[in-house]
Write a structure and sequence with these properties.
transmembrane helix; two-stranded antiparallel sheet; membrane; CmpB_TMEM229; transmembrane; Membrane protein; globular; mainly alpha
Length: 173
């Protein structure tokens, strides 16, 4: 997989993650808005987990792929939750009320959801996205720096805004 392809998949799946979480928020709370780490329409953990699945799961037995579909998203979710909490002193999701959970960052129920979603992703979604990328790879090679720049600007801007908010909260206390 080329760097251009990896960037394309990362951004597409990060956008899909944003749509998935906001859609879930709409279905459960009636609002198509869920606070995320980034200000823009990206959920990076949804970009990272699929890339790891593609890189580590390709060519493996169905049993190993099934295990990876359970383990990779769960580990990515835990590490993401831990780091976000550590750096920004905020917990964007909290599974503490669920049975079989760890520090509120992961729980068995959602790990099983991620496993099913990951299997569906590998079997049905990614082949279509791969086909889309194949038809536009030459165009993507030209425009990808713009999309990467937009993502990085969002990342830096969000980081600065959130760190300022932490400092402001500390001053008020």
């Amino acid at each position: 997989m080329t760097m251009d392809a990896l960037l394309f998949y990362f951004l597409v799946y990060s956008l899909f993650g944003w749509l998935l979480e906001n859609g879930y928020s709409y279905l459960t709370e009636g609002v198509f808005a869920k606070d995320g780490f980034l200000k823009g329409p990206y959920k990076p953990m949804y970009g990272v987990a699929p890339l790891l699945l593609l890189l580590l799961g390709t060519g493996r037995s169905p049993f190993v792929v099934g295990l990876l579909c359970l383990i990779i998203p769960t580990v990515v979710e835990y590490v993401s939750g831990y780091l976000l909490n550590r750096v920004f002193h905020k917990q964007w999701w909290n599974y503490s009320e669920n049975r079989v959970q760890l520090h509120g960052h992961i729980c068995l129920k959602f790990s099983l959801y991620w496993a099913v979603l990951s299997f569906v992703f590998l079997r049905y979604i990614h082949p279509s996205i791969e086909g889309i990328y194949a038809t536009m790879a030459s165009v993507w090679a030209m425009v990808s720096p713009v999309f990467l720049l937009l993502f990085l600007v969002d990342l830096i801007w969000t980081y600065q805004v959130r760190r300022r908010a932490i400092k402001s909260d500390l001053i008020e206390q």
